[in-house]
Design a protein that fits this description.
This protein is an alpha/beta fold. It is built from five helices and 18 strands. The relative contact order is 0.16.
Length: 269
């Protein structure tokens, strides 16, 4: 795992592009560590980062690193609240604070097992950099992505050759992405499943893989105040008792270590 430099650093936004309901924010980070697929960063706008009459500062927001190439990081954003809205407003040339890469990323698939990538909503982000990494190693991956509607399904352009499911049937399979996964595992369960998305989807993936003894690595997302294990605000129950900190013990956690995926431990859909 790459070691993050001490303290956060101010970086410049190099570009913004829209993918339906989402925005892809590109940030120049030429001197930063190379992230492992599945790691995240804590980001905040340098200017106008606060709310209320006194503009009380927001906490930094945790976002998976969606892509990394030639000293530039991409983040997939959706306007779901005041902090993410401010980040969506950023334009090329503006600056943001970044701390990262943080956390534990995905592990390589075991020899002989195929990779299946399962994403939901904005949770598709870490699967893009994972697909890049697998492709560079000559390892093809099956990509299954689920979205609420066509506006969000446009985010699938972030990955190559995805099979898409939508809740409303506007694009691809009419239904849940876990239904696509069940069909894949019914044909060949000798795989490794990599998943990130909303909690109900992740719980569905965990359950399906447990039934078929298929290993799965789940990228959990939870509200964080620090990003490095100090606040214990992002804990999830561990199988057998105790808790795991999403920011430090994850965000990628082997499914077999988790008793269940709680509602707060998933990417917003």
């Amino acid at each position: 795992m790459s070691e993050a430099p001490f303290g956060r650093r101010a970086l410049r936004v190099t570009g913004v592009r829209e993918l339906g309901a989402y925005r892809v924010l590109s940030v120049a980070d030429p001197d930063g560590p190379t992230p492992t697929p599945g790691q995240f960063a804590m980001i905040a706008a340098v200017e106008r980062w606060g709310g209320g009459e006194d503009e009380r500062p927001f906490l930094a927001r945790a976002f998976s690193i969606a892509r990394h190439r030639e000293g530039e990081c991409d983040f997939l954003l959706e306007d779901v609240g005041p902090g993410s809205r401010r980040l969506c407003e950023l334009a090329a040339g503006e600056r943001l604070w970044l701390l990262g890469p943080l956390g534990l990323g995905f592990g390589a698939p075991e020899r002989g097992r195929r990779a299946i990538l399962v994403g939901g909503g904005v949770g598709i982000a870490p699967l893009a950099i994972l697909q890049d990494s697998l492709a560079a190693a000559g390892q093809p991956a099956t990509v299954l992505l689920g979205f609420r509607d066509a506006a969000r399904a446009a985010g699938a352009q972030l990955l190559s050759a995805p099979v898409i499911a939508t809740d409303d049937g506007s694009v691809g399979h009419h239904g849940l992405v876990t239904e696509l996964l069940a069909a894949e595992l019914a044909v060949d369960a000798h795989a490794v499943v990599y998943a990130c998305g909303p909690a109900p989807m992740l719980e569905g993936v965990r359950s399906l893989c447990a039934e078929r003894a298929t290993p799965a690595q789940l990228a959990l997302e939870a509200a964080m105040a620090c990003g490095f294990g100090a606040c214990f605000g992002c804990v999830v129950p561990r199988r057998g008792g105790g808790y795991l900190r999403v920011c430090l013990d994850g965000p990628v956690i082997d499914a077999e270590l988790i008793e269940r995926v709680d509602e707060h431990a998933g990417a917003p859909a």
